[in-house]
Amino acid sequence: MSAPVGVGVVGTGVISEEYLRNLTAFPDLRVVAVADLDPQRAAARAAAHGVPRSSTVDELLADPDVSVVVNLTVPAAHVPVSLAAIEAGKHVWVEKPLGLDLPGARDLLDRAARRGLRVACAPDTLLGAGWQTARRAVDGGLIGEPRTALALFQTPGPESWHPAPEFLFQAGGGPLLDMGPYYLTGLVHLLGPIRRVTAAGSRARDTRVIGSGPRAGVEFEVTVPTTVTALVEFERGGTAQAVFSFDSALSRTGFVEVAGTLGTAVLPDPNGFGGTTEVHLSDGVQTLAPQGHSASRGTGVLELARAIRAGVPERASGELAYHVLDAMLAMEESIALGRPVDVGSTVEPPPALPVDWDPDVLSPAGR
To answer: How far does Cα 101 stand from its chain's mean position?
Structure first.
């Protein structure tokens, strides 16, 4: 059996709790250090999850026991921290989005490639049993050839529950950059790479108020569209309609519907790891229960580590994340210009996970 891969986690915000709970449970991984700009918060997270040490970011990057850096910082720091990890000789898993602009994201991927290092990127929810079951059904032709899709994410916004939501309403955030990666990555899985987008955007309010935590009542500025509606066209043919909104008092989340030549599939929430798939065919409705593992956030880090060890491509690749970022930034450009915008990059969607892929068993070969 191969020894566990050493992991260091940078950033101890809200999402780090779920990551650390899972990363410390996978036998293929060993979390050796946690780092944050706030050393006390890093120490508390490390202690809570049995991680041997907390440190500064520089100390973590210099740690010879760390092979993979898990970058959970705010979006503006995704590229700088990931670049520092690459320069330190580490592979990288980074939270979505990959970056805030295409030149920075491209530079990150190119530098990693030159050094023989991997960059993988969230979301890894699409590696969960729910979406993978749907993916295998669509790939297997259950609804025929996928032709159209509908993706909906509508909420009042995260400021009511998030204790520090400002970054979600600034560059790199908004419902498009924050939630779009889940839905658009899922659509690329099913319909292939995106070739052109047409989008419209609006902002319901110029300021918002923090609704929970020690800073409740603090007002902050909103600088990005808080509702984005887009028409997405795919290289292989087919289209999708997508709505991403922080302006709706009626929550409607996790909805992805794909229509094919033989039927229509209503897929699980792409921001979750489980869920059933409903397949509507001419002779009735089939419900597909999720088949596969029950792991949660951090699954992509594990899949990356196994791929590195096996010498095969990782599924939640940086190139996939780059393509989705390209599409989202093209939507922002379309909003600004008032016309369709071509997406310059392309990508080959990753294969589905085998149904017997097991995160709870130490794997000698990786897959």
So the answer is: 16
Whether 367 has a pLDDT exceeding 50, the answer reads no
Residue 329: half-sphere exposure toward Cβ, Cα within 13 Å: 20
- For every residue of 278-307, DSSP letters joined together read EEEETTEEEEE---S----TTHHHHHHHHH
Distance CA 367, CA 168 (A): 35
Instruction: Supply the DSSP string of 199-231, one letter for each residue.
Output: EEEE-S-SEEE--SSTTTT-EEE--S-SEEEEE
* Spatial CB neighbours of 169, under 8 Å, sequence gap ≥ 6: 157, 159, 208, 220, 221, 222, 223, 224, 226, 246
pTM of the model: 0.95
How many Å is the maximal CA-CA distance in the chain?
A: 61
Classify 182 as helix, strand or coil.
Answer: helix
In angstroms, the CA 100 to CA 104 distance is 8
Cα-Cα-Cα-Cα torsion 79, 81, 86, 88, nearest 10 degrees, comes to 160
Three-class secondary structure of residue 171 per DSSP:
coil
Whole-angstrom distance, CA of residue 150 vs CA of residue 298: 27
| pLDDT computed for residue 364 by the predictor | 67
Report yes or no: 23 and 301 within 8 Å, Cβ to Cβ.
yes
Q: Are 68 and 8 in contact (CB under 8 A)?
A: yes
Domains of the chain: 5-121 (3.40.50.720), 146-260 (3.30.360.10)
Rg (C-alpha) for the chain, rounded Å, is 20
Query: What is the residue whose two structure tokens read 């149904």?
Result: 355
- Per-residue pLDDT of 133-153, as tens digits, reads 999 999 999 999 999 999 999
pLDDT of the residue at 280? 98
Contact 32, 7 (CB under 8 A): yes
5-10/29-35 β-pairing: parallel
